[in-house]
Every structure is written in structure tokens, then in C-alpha cells.
Design brief:
ARM-type_fold; transmembrane; two-stranded antiparallel sheet; transmembrane helix; about 0% strand; membrane; mainly alpha; Armadillo-like helical domain-containing protein
Length: about 800
């Protein structure tokens, strides 16, 4: 780049470092020779630019042009001090100018910084210089300033896709330089910033261009790099979870928690002053998570597009990672490892466990516009993991005997791989959020990760039912094909609560396009458990509890919900039974809503794993079986995982089948009527109702729907099914009849395009703001000196 002289004196006078106690301007010749030798007065330079209006800046654009061009050129100066001061100056100038509200942002910013004629040359040189510094053997101090300058440049506009300066990062790919810096740095905070920047650049116009950063992330196979990424991600999740715990300790086994409970009981006062005022606690929770939550973006990209990373992350535990570092410490070619700040008590954290643990806190405290998109993203990541065929061994590998369960460690520990899964990642204890009531039962023993998934999802459901809830986040569930030990009573109570919530607040959701699908999928999920519960329940008691809930609520909540959201029911339901005959509390104790502690069926113990499964109920022939061969098989995995699918499609006809739900209600309710008539003086309580269910279960007849056919109804646009829809409910709802017949999107496999495009465009706005803020915070802590103990600025 051609040498250019410093601009007019008026610009220099306003921007150069202020001299203490002096108002004299520096002589121009002195500035030309020594300007980049001077230590940058960041506070003064920043405040001066902040106090200058947009029009005033444009009036002195020639001077700003020259200063900016000179600083870019100084980045290649042989003197380290000049390179350092040049990048510090650029970071401040860019940051303050980017905050201005120009009428034509991209045009005015480029016009102000470089002029249109020099823009391509200057910014290409700038990005190329950043890549050269980050990938070189420069001192860490200079490299850190280069990283912060790159972040300031990439985060210039809140809308990353409208920041035209990021186009120069696409033209001058610095991915390899960023990875080299990432592997050399010891600080977890700096490693996080490098990862977060890569994640942001990978999402720049990724739907319009061939983004080299996204491609490189998807093709990244280096074991050492991926392993270190796992270490950084786990550390960040652990640190963010600690932020929630610092506001409110929820570990019932901790000494502090026990002492707090004792003092609260005796004195009526809480030990934690913050907890004395619920508003103060709510305010503290509203500030969480901190800006490091932006790591979720690159974590999503890696989980979604890089199968190798998925495998390494599912097998990752901090105990095995630490062992690997110690074993490789003597290898001279091995790169320096992270200066991890994990507590000694957390050295057994698994990768999947750390993500689920943090997610449980984030999902239960989802109360702000800022936390909403990150909550959404967590649910999508959970969905991707459950849909991946390689995750089955990590989520649903269940020991067959109690001895095998008891022999497993309570925390994660290293072990040999079985079926592609580390034993420590198959059965583990994971700390989940217990800061909001009602809480799920606390499980002290190691259990399958699929059960942890279910707890995280149920926690989200329980604490996010509100009139302004994120309907798209409630969408999607996948099917379980394994007998999973779990407190299924909580599942039934939560699903019944969701059905009643949607029913009572239907008008509030009429304008939300995903509400119909959510209502249909909720009913379908209950129908699935009713129809195939004997294939997945670990013991009969769990299935009896589901039947009890259906008898208690009746069929009306399901049929009314379908009617309210214009969902077709086929075949039509028969006339309802006289449910009101048994609603009197002194005759049949079913009208109340029992709490889990008073439920007629207790949570199945771990010994239930070896219990015999309930005998399958007898079935009748079904017209659906004729379509069985036209349906595709579902993903064989697991569990109820909720995530989002934005749907802007034309309203279509949705069919649900309530036959089996109605059959369970009718069959057992008829037996209850018979018992009442035979014993008019006795009261039907929960225990007796459960006994009647158990006695007559063998005689229950359900409509047979093959599992693949059941899923296929939502996955296939079968011509036969579509034809059948045309005559459905002949004179029924005009809106539904005029719609387009189609499957429930929630039953299809996850795909980012096209359904998630609007979501990710909006998400990157929050990522930009959070990454910009956390980078400034880390820079401030380092500048303060000694306050950032976990941000060492030296290498071994």
C-alpha cells in the first residue's frame, strides 16, 4: 500500500492523545515520526470520538482516512510497539464509528474510514495483516490485540449479514490462522473468543454464499483441535451454570444449602441476602447467561455439520481429557494445553452432561427476549443429538441388571468403549436446575443420558407455559424405542398440563402459525404412549399411571383441543360417556389433580429394569395397516426432545386419531361404573382405581397401528391419505377443509433450511451484541491487571 501522510491538523488535534496539563498541539513533523510510538490513551480517544456527531466526523473524513490508512500500514511495521499501538488505535476507531447512526451505514462507514477508492485495498490489507499476526509467532500481547480488532471489525453492525466489511473476511480466509492461534493459546477465555469469532464468521450470509469458514468447520478432522474445542465448550458451559448457582444455591446435598434450610426454618430468614428479595433474585437471573453463551452458535454448527466432532464430544469427559494431557505432556511436538480452571470436584464432567446441565438452567429461567433465542438453539441442538444414529449408544445403553447399575460410578469416569460409547457417558449423574418450583424428583444414582434429556425437556415445559410462550420452541418430539427407567408419572402430569393449558388459552395462540401443529403433536404424543407404552415402559406401574391420568381427565380435553384448533379427528368419536356421574369427590376421587407425591403410582425404582414388561393388549384390525408399506421408517432414537420448526406454510388439514385414547378411557371407566354400582357404599380412591386398572388391563383392546405406520402418517404425503382427507368432515370447518393436506412438520427430521433461516438471522443479532460485549469485558479485566486470573497472557 502506498505511503500516505497524516491528514489535516484539525483531525489530529481531535484524535491524538491528550497531553496532561497542556493544550498545545503536537507539531506535525513530530506526529509523522513518532505517532505510533505513543501509548494509546484509549479512554480519551474513545470519549472524543463518542462525543463527535456523525456530521462532524464526515466533515473531517480526510483526516480520519489518513489516520486509518496509516494505522493499517503500521500493522506491518518491523517495530512491535508500532504494530501494537496501530491495532489498538484501529480497534477504538472502528468500535466508536460503528456505534454511530449513519443514514447509509455501509456507505458512510467506508467513506469515512478509507474513502471508496481505497476501500478494497485497505480492508484486504487489514484482514490479511490480522491473519498474518494470528498465525505467526508474535508475542501473545500483540496477537490478543489482533483478535480483539478482528472481533470489532466482524461485529461492526448488529446485523452481521449487513456488515459489508465481513466480505473481506470471506475474500481473505484467515481460518487456518485462527485455528493456529486457538491451539497455541492457554487461556480458556481467549480460546473461547477465537471460537466465537469463527462461529460468527461461519454464519455470515451462509445462505447466499459459499462461506469458507462454515465449510472448514464442517470438514475439520484434526483430533487435537476438536478435542480442545470440546474442552473450551465444557468449561464455558460449566462457568455459565455457576452463574446461576451463585444467585441461588440449589444443591440439596451441599453444606450451604442444608445450613440455609435450617436457618430459614428457625428464624424465618434466608441465609442468602439476595434471596430475601425475590425481585432482586429475578433481576439477577434476568442478566444470565453472560455473553459467553455465544459459544452455542459454533457448538451448533459443529454438532450439525461435523460428524467427527459429534463423536468426540459424545465421548468426551474432563477426566479422560486431563489424562490425555498428562500422558502427552512429555511430547515436545504437542501444543500447550488450556490452563483449565475447572474445580477438582468437576474433573469428571462429561461433554453431554455439561451441555444438559447448563441447558436445564437456561431453559427454566427463560424469561427475557435475550434468553429466548438461546433457549431455542439449545432445544435444536438437543434434537440434532437425539436424531443422530450414532448417539443411541450414548443415550439409551441401559445395563440389564441392578449389579451393573450399582457398579457404575456416580460421576463420569474413564472407561473402555462399548458399542462406540464411553461407559462414563452412558450412565451418569448430571446436576440439573432445581431453582424453580415444582421440581422433578432428584435422582442420586447414575442413569441413562436419555432420562436426563427428558428431565431437561420436562423442566422447560413446566416452567414455560405462559400466554406469550414460544410456541415454536415447544414443537417436535422423537420416538422412544427402548425401555427407559424414568419417573414417567411426571411425564403424564406434564403432558396433561400442556393439553389443558393449550385448551384454556387457545384464543391467545390463534394468530401463531405453529400453534395448530403444537396442539396436534401434543395429542399425538399422548396417543403414542397409549398405543405403544407397553414397548417402552420399564414396568406396568408406569403404564397404569398414564391410564389413570386419562380416566381422571376424560376424553373431552383432547377432543375440545382438536376442535378449538380446527384439527380433524378420524374416525369420529362416539357419544361420550356420562362422565359427570362419577365426578363427585365422595364417590370417586378423580376430580382433583394429584401431585407426584400423592400419585397412585410411584416412580419406578431402578430395580424395575429387570421387571417383566406388561403383556401387550389385544388389538383389532385397522384400515391404517394397508398404508404400512408406503411409510418410511423413523430414526430409531429416543426420547421426547423439543425444538423449533418455524412454519409459514398455508394452513393444511391435520388429522389425529383419538381412538385408542378414547378406548382406554371408555374401557376402564365402564369398569369403574360397574364397580360403583356393585359397591355403592364404598368410595373409589386412587389406590382402588389403580387396582381396577391392573385387574382389567389384560382385557383392554386397542386399535393396532404399526409404529412405522403411526410415524408415516406425519412423514409422508401419501396420495391415498390425501384423497381420504378430501371427504373428511364433509360440512366441517371451512378453513380446514380449504387447506392443504400434509404431515406434521414436527415428525420430520430436522433441517435448517428453509424452516430455520429466519430464526438464525435473528439469532446472530444477539450473538454480535454479546460477543462484542464479552470481548470488551475481557479486555477491560486484563487492562485492570490481576482481576482476570483465568486470562493469563503468557505462554509456557
Amino acid at each position: 500500500m502506498q505511503e500516505m501522510k497524516i491528514g489535516p491538523a484539525s483531525a489530529r488535534e481531535h484524535l491524538l492523545r491528550q497531553q496532561s496539563g497542556q493544550k498545545m498541539k503536537l507539531k506535525e513533523k513530530f506526529v509523522e515520526i513518532y505517532d505510533m510510538f505513543l501509548r494509546v490513551n484509549e479512554e480519551y480517544l474513545s470519549s472524543s470520538l463518542a462525543q463527535t456527531s456523525e456530521d462532524q466526523l464526515l466533515a473531517i473524513k480526510d483526516g480520519i482516512n489518513n489516520i486509518f490508512l496509516h494505522a493499517v500500514q503500521a500493522m506491518r511495521d518491523p517495530l512491535p510497539q508500532r504494530r501494537l499501538h496501530a491495532m489498538q488505535t484501529l480497534t477504538i476507531v472502528l468500535g466508536e464509528i460503528f456505534r454511530k447512526k449513519f443514514h447509509n451505514w455501509s456507505f458512510d462507514v467506508i467513506h469515512l474510514l478509507t474513502g471508496l477508492s481505497h476501500a478494497d485495498l485497505v480492508f484486504r490489507t487489514l484482514v490479511q495483516g490480522l491473519g498474518a499476526i494470528l498465525g505467526s509467532d508474535e508475542t501473545l500481547e500483540i496477537q490478543v490485540v489482533a483478535l480483539r480488532l478482528a472481533i470489532a471489525l466482524a461485529c461492526g453492525n448488529d446485523n452481521v449479514n449487513k456488515n459489508s466489511l465481513n466480505e473481506y473476511f470471506m475474500q481473505k480466509d484467515i481460518f487456518s490462522s485462527m485455528i493456529k492461534f486457538f491451539m497455541m493459546v492457554q487461556s480458556t477465555e481467549l480460546a473461547f473468543e477465537a471460537m466465537a469469532l469463527l462461529g460468527l464468521l461461519a454464519n455470515y450470509n451462509k445462505y447466499e454464499i459459499q462461506n469458507p469458514y462454515l465449510t472448514n468447520l464442517a470438514q475439520l478432522k484434526d483430533e487435537a483441535v476438536l478435542q480442545k474445542m470440546c474442552t473450551v465448550i465444557v468449561h464455558v458451559f460449566d462457568s455459565m451454570r455457576k452463574g446461576y448457582v451463585e444467585v441461588m444455591e440449589d444443591d440439596e446435598l451441599s453444606t450451604v444449602s442444608k445450613l440455609t434450610s435450617a436457618l430459614s426454618y428457625v428464624t424465618g430468614m434466608l441465609w442468602n441476602p439476595k434471596a430475601q428479595d425475590s425481585s432482586a433474585t429475578d433481576t439477577a437471573f434476568a442478566q444470565l447467561p453472560d455473553g459467553r453463551v455465544t459459544v452455542l452458535l459454533i457448538f451448533y454448527d459443529l454438532i450439525y455439520s461435523n460428524k467427527r466432532f459429534m463423536h468426540i464430544y459424545l465421548n468426551y469427559s474432563t477426566s479422560t481429557a486431563n489424562s490425555s494431557q498428562q500422558n502427552g505432556a512429555s511430547t515436545s511436538s504437542a501444543p500447550p494445553q488450556l490452563a483449565s480452571s475447572l474445580d477438582a470436584t468437576e474433573t469428571g464432567e462429561t461433554g453431554l452432561g455439561s451441555f444438559l446441565s447448563f441447558s436445564s438452567y437456561l431453559l427454566q429461567h427463560n424469561r427475557t427476549h435475550r434468553s429466548a433465542p438461546y433457549t431455542h438453539l439449545c432445544l435444536i441442538i438437543m434434537l440434532i443429538i437425539t436424531e443422530d444414529s450414532t448417539s443411541i449408544s450414548h443415550l439409551c445403553s441401559i445395563p440389564q441388571t441392578q449389579d451393573q447399575i450399582s457398579s457404575l460410578p456416580l460421576g463420569a469416569a474413564s472407561g473402555t468403549e462399548t458399542g462406540g460409547a464411553n461407559k462414563s457417558n452412558v450412565m451418569a449423574t448430571v446436576r440439573l436446575c432445581r431453582q424453580r418450583q415444582p421440581v422433578l424428583p432428584k435422582v442420586k444414582q447414575a442413569r441413562p443420558m436419555a432420562a436426563v434429556f427428558l428431565d431437561v425437556v420436562l423442566g422447560f415445559l413446566k416452567h414455560n407455559m405462559k400466554k406469550r410462550m414460544q410456541v415454536d420452541c415447544f414443537r417436535r418430539f422423537k420416538i422412544l424405542r427402548v425401555r427407559l427407567p424414568y419417573h414417567w408419572v411426571e411425564m403424564w402430569n406434564t403432558l396433561q398440563g400442556l393439553v389443558k393449558f393449550l385448551q384454556s388459552n387457545g384464543k391467545a395462540f390463534e394468530q401463531q402459525p405453529d400453534a395448530r401443529d403444537l396442539a396436534a403433536e401434543t395429542i399425538d404424543l399422548v396417543n403414542y404412549f397409549v398405543t405403544f407404552g407397553d414397548l417402552i415402559m420399564p414396568d406396568p406401574a408406569s403404564l397404569y399411571a398414564l391410564y389413570y391420568e386419562i380416566i381422571r381427565s376424560g376424553i373431552e380435553p383432547f377432543s375440545d383441543l382438536a376442535k378449538q384448533f380446527s384439527i380433524a379427528v378420524q374416525p369420529p368419536l362416539p357419544a361420550p360417556l356420562p362422565h359427570h356421574d362419577l365426578t363427585s369427590r365422595n364417590r370417586l376421587n378423580l376430580a382433583g389433580s394429584p401431585s407426584p407425591s400423592s400419585s397412585p403410582v410411584t416412580t419406578p425404582p431402578q430395580s424395575a429394569l429387570s421387571s417383566p414388561s406388561p403383556a401387550p393388549a389385544s388389538i383389532l384390525s385397522s384400515p391404517l395397516s394397508s398404508f404400512q408399506n408406503s411409510y418410511r421408517s423413523p430414526s430409531p432414537m429416543s426420547a421426547v426432545a423439543l425444538a423449533a420448526v418455524s412454519s409459514s406454510q398455508q394452513q393444511r388439514v391435520i388429522i389425529i386419531d383419538l381412538s385408542n385414547i378414547n378406548q382406554v378411557y371408555t374401557f376402564f371407566f365402564t369398569h369403574l361404573l360397574t364397580w360403583r354400582d356393585a359397591s355403592p357404599t364404598r368410595s373409589l380412591g386412587p389406590d382402588l382405581v389403580t387396582t381396577i386398572i391392573k385387574t382389567h388391563y389384560q382385557d383392554l383392546t386397542l386399535v393396532p397401528i404399526p409404529l412405522d405406520a403411526f410415524l408415516g402418517q406425519r412423514q409422508s404425503r401419501s396420495a391415498a391419505v390425501s384423497v381420504g382427507l378430501k371427504g373428511l368432515n364433509g360440512g366441517g370447518n371451512g378453513a380446514a377443509a380449504a387447506g392443504v393436506a400434509g404431515p406434521h412438520p414436527g415428525w420430520d427430521g430436522y433441517s435448517e433450511v428453509p424452516g430455520k433461516v429466519p430464526f438464525f438471522r435473528q439469532l446472530t443479532r444477539w450473538v454480535v451484541a454479546d460477543l462484542r460485549a464479552v470481548s470488551k469485558e475481557h479486555a477491560f479485566l486484563v487492562a485492570e491487571g490481576g482481576k482476570a486470573a483465568t486470562v493469563p497472557l503468557n505462554r509456557q
